[in-house]
Write a structure and sequence with these properties.
The chain is an alpha/beta fold and 286 residues long. Helix content is 47%, strand content 15%. It contains 12 helices and 10 strands.
Length: 286
């Protein structure tokens, strides 16, 4: 279960070494924005080595999900990124500024060309207006699309609006990508909260993302990982209520009652389904 995804600059050896201790459910080794042009070559080699070490030293059930964000296909770095990274075993390849299904098809075609038979999953980064409008088509264009991430910084630049901590300007985008992901059956992850020192802000932002239906949230600092994990995990109160809902339903079925209530409120099918989801998630995280 991925709740938190930590971006790790691919050219900073110290941050790569410390990333596995962050408690993040997934690590996104970045070869794009956080790597200067003169360090692209060394970054991809460092990331490949990090992947090799993690795959070798940790059991699959114990290690974080390993994701690599490559450079855009239009750049000279894209093919070299894939050639290097596909020699290792990442769980997902993230490609930036995916705007339509053919962007995913291009990525999958290059993966097959470089590493025939490789079935690595892909994670489109949705950070353009066109990508947002095509989010469902992107999410459903291939079974190898396993998740999507909302990139609010580039998206708001494309939308020509100001990016704020409150995030009202991306409310539609958040809701749109969640609906698209859920309809396509893939996980959806929220954009990072970029103020690394605002502890109250990350708490509110993560809670907002959870309330909208996101699977989890990305982070650009290890300081945000604990908050994200906690917010996206069922609370003791949520677990207790879910258990009470299912117990009430079972009692009603034993007594042959068609209508069941709990604490004065009727329990209908959506309430039961949410209760089951909470308990399943709690069991998975146990």
């Amino acid at each position: 279960m991925n709740r938190s995804m930590l971006f790790v600059p691919g050219s900073v050896e110290k941050m790569i070494a410390k990333a596995p201790t962050s408690k993040a459910d997934a690590l996104i080794f970045d070869l794009e924005d956080s790597v200067s042009l003169d360090k692209k070559d060394v970054a991809r080699k460092m990331v490949r080595e990090a992947l090799d070490n993690l795959v070798r030293d940790m059991k699959p059930a114990e290690r974080p999900t390993l994701i690599v964000r490559v450079n855009p296909p239009a750049t000279e770095y894209f093919i070299e990124d894939l050639r290097e990274i596909l020699q290792s075993s990442p769980d997902l390849i993230m490609t930036p500024k995916v705007s339509q299904p053919k962007d995913v098809e291009l990525l999958l075609g290059k993966i097959e060309e470089i590493s025939p038979g490789n079935t690595v999953g892909v994670m489109p980064l949705i950070e353009t207006a066109l990508g947002l409008e095509n989010a469902f088509l992107i999410a459903s264009c291939s079974p190898r699309v396993k998740a999507m991430l909302l990139g609010a910084e580039d998206l708001t630049a494309d939308l020509r609006c100001k990016r704020t901590k409150e995030g009202e300007e991306i409310l539609y985008a958040r809701s749109r990508i969640v609906a698209a992901g859920r309809a396509a059956g893939v996980d959806i992850f929220d954009t990072p909260f970029t103020d690394t020192r605002d502890e109250e802000g990350i708490e509110k932002d993560a809670a907002k993302a959870k309330s909208l239906g996101f699977t989890g949230k990305a982070a650009i600092t290890p300081r945000h990982v604990e908050v994200i994990n906690r917010v996206f995990s069922p609370s003791p109160e949520e677990i207790e209520y879910a258990q009470a809902v299912l117990a009430a339903i079972e009692e009603g079925e034993r007594e042959g009652r068609g209508a069941v209530s709990l604490n004065g409120k009727m329990i209908d099918a959506p309430v039961v389904e949410r209760a089951k989801q909470v308990l399943e998630l709690a069991k998975e995280l146990d």
